[in-house]
Amino acid sequence: MAPHKAPDSSRRSDRSRRAIYDAALALVGESGYRRTTIEGIAARAGVGKQTIYRWWPSKAAVLMEAFLDLAARAAEEAAPRTGGADPQADGAEYGIPDTGDLAADLKLVLRATVDELNDPLMEAPTRALTAEGIVDAKLGAEFVEKLLDPQLALYVTRLRAAQEAGQLRPDADPRIALELLIAPLTHRWLLRTLPLTHAYADTIVDYALGGLAPRS
Fold it and tell me: Cα–Cα distance between 187 and 194 in angstroms, integer?
C-alpha cells in the first residue's frame, strides 16, 4: 500500500490567496470599491471569510495587495518588451531602459503603459481604486505610496541619467518633468476624452522633450 502523502499546506495557501486576489479584483471591477465586501470576495473565491480575515485586516488591505500583485505580474510580462531587468535574476530591479536614446526609451515605456491601461484585466480595478482613492484619503495615500511612487521613481532615475548625459536641461526638475509624460496619459484615460494609443504616447514624449532639451 502506497504511503499517504500529506497535503502541501503552502500550495493550498497559495491557491487560496490567488483565488482571493482574483475574486477581489473581479468584484471591484464589476461593482466598484464600496459595493465589494469581504463576504462577496470569500464567496467568489470559494473560501471562508475567516480565511481572509486571518491574512488581511480589512477589505482595503485585500484589494491593495491584490492590485499590487496584479501590477507586479504586469511588470514581469512587460519587462521583455521594454528591455527591463530579468525578473528572475537575483537582485534585479525593474527600470526604464537606458539605451542612450531618451526619446526611444520613454516611448517604449509609455507604449507599455498604454497597453496596460487598455487591458481589461487592469482597467476596471485600476479605475475603481483610483476613483475611491480620490474620496478616501487614507486609501489614496496608500495607493500612491505602495504603487505610484515606486513607479515614478523609475522615471526620476532615467531622467537624471539623461541630465548627466546632457540630454536634458540641467535645471529641469525630474519629478515635474515626469508629470509632463504621465499626466496627459492619465487625463485621457480617466476622462475617456479620446482614444489612448501608441501614437498619442509618442507625441507626448516629443512634446515634452521639445521643452526640456538644453537651450542653445
Answer: 10
Chain position carrying cell 502506497: 2
Which of these, 105, 103, 94, 123, lies nearest to 186 by C-alpha position? 123
Neighbours of 119 (CB within 10 A): 14
- From the list 58, 63, 6, the residue with the least C-alpha distance to 29 is 63
Q: What is the pLDDT of residues 25-75, one digit of tens each?
A: 999 888 888 899 999 999 999 999 999 999 998 888 898 899 888 878 776
CB 140 within 8 A of CB 74: no
Rounded Cα–Cα distance for residues 64 and 58 (Å): 10
Instruction: Give the length of the chain.
Output: 216
> For residue 158, which of 92, 103, 208 has the smallest C-alpha distance?
103
- DSSP three-state, residue 119: coil
Do residues 127 and 118 make contact, with C-beta atoms less than 8 angstroms apart?
no
d(Cα 69, Cα 67) in Å, to the nearest integer? 5
pTM beyond cutoff 0.70 = yes
> Counting beta carbons within 10 angstroms of the beta carbon of residue 137, is it exposed (0 to 12), middle (13 to 18) or buried (19 or more)?
exposed
Neighbours of 170 (CB within 10 A): 8
E strand segments, the chain: none
